[in-house]
């Protein structure tokens, strides 16, 4: 006979009711829009509360209720008193244009820190500018420039104005993503060392007209589509797939090496016809790698995903050689088409 009394924690039901109450108060105007980045930085407190609920919530249900009320009461208090705490901010729609000329630069390092807005990146034509950014978003962006012959350009958004009111549901006619954009043009006149942080948004990068010397990609939790440029000079691309999705079209007539950490996301490579391809999988992890059937395994054995595969023409190819090194597959998927 089981003499133990079992209690069902009511911590999470109270949290759900509290979030609904906060949302309602916000839509009724009692809670102003604030910098939610401040609240995000407090997320470890939630872990502490959950741990306390696991430890003591089974002893008595009133402890779970008290913990839930403490969390919700504290959140509502912070939101209501946000103006006096210096956390309030206007959710104003901003349209701005940021430009930096090429000037005397012969090379450039470009760091694009994309935000939640849908973004496009293309090559400029008939322009003397290194970067042209047309932005429509909530908050304020920045463009910092340093150097002369080798310029370093960083485009991003100020952290204190990082988005719209997350408690307000966008209307169907003027949805949040329908009106906002980051349209970025980059020069095709000089070699670029390009870094792109995709963040949470979706982005389309048509880089086919650019002169890339190196590239670093962080897909993060968003989605990203990339068209890489052809080049007479070999260049390298380093990709951190994170939890997002990546589609990348590979160029013809170019010696290219790609280092991929697939992480938890999905990555799809679109291969050119007649490619000379070598794929090295260093750690198969928990995910899947779907390799082209035309490749031959030259190292590794059995069902293990670790190994090296090559196309028949790779060893003797002088140009159009594609080397893809997969350091870790993670729980995601990597496909070739």
Question: What is this structure's SSE topology?
Answer:
Blueprint: H1 11-27, H2 36-40, H3 43-56, H4 61-80, H5 82-85, E1 93-101, E2 107-113, E3 119-123, E4 129-138, E5 141-146, E6 150-157, H6 176-179, E7 181-186, E8 192-197, E9 202-206, E10 212-218, E11 223-227, E12 235-240, E13 245-249, E14 256-261, E15 266-270, E16 276-281, E17 288-290, E18 296-299, E19 307-310, E20 321-328, E21 333-336
Parallel strand pairs: 2-6, 2-8, 3-7, 3-9, 8-10, 9-11, 10-12, 11-13, 12-14, 13-15, 14-20, 15-21, 16-20, 17-21
Antiparallel strand pairs: 1-4, 4-7, 5-6, 16-19, 18-19
Helix pairs in contact: 1-4, 3-4
Q: What value does the Rg take, in angstroms?
A: 25 Å
Number of strands: 21
Structural class category: alpha/beta
N-end to C-end Cα span = 61 Å
What count of structural domains?
3
- Run of helices and strands: HHHHHEEEEEEHEEEEEEEEEEEEEEE
> In percent, how helical is the residue content?
10-25%
Labels describing this entry:
337 residues; alpha/beta; eleven-stranded mixed β-sheet; ten-stranded mixed β-sheet; 6 helices; 19% helix
Describe it for me?
- This protein is an alpha/beta fold.
- The chain folds into three domains: 11-85, no CATH class; 91-190, no CATH class; 230-337, no CATH class.
- The chain is built from six helices and 21 strands.
- It has helices at 11-27, 36-40, 43-56, 61-80, 82-85, 176-179, and strands spanning 93-101, 107-113, 119-123, 129-138, 141-146, 150-157, 181-186, 192-197, 202-206, 212-218, 223-227, 235-240, 245-249, 256-261, 266-270, 276-281, 288-290, 296-299, 307-310, 321-328, 333-336.
- The strands form two sheets. Strands 5-6-2-8-10-12-14-20-16-19-18 form an eleven-stranded mixed sheet, with no helix packed on it.
- Strand 18 and strand 19 (307-310) form a beta hairpin.
- The model is unreliable at 160-177 (pLDDT under 50).
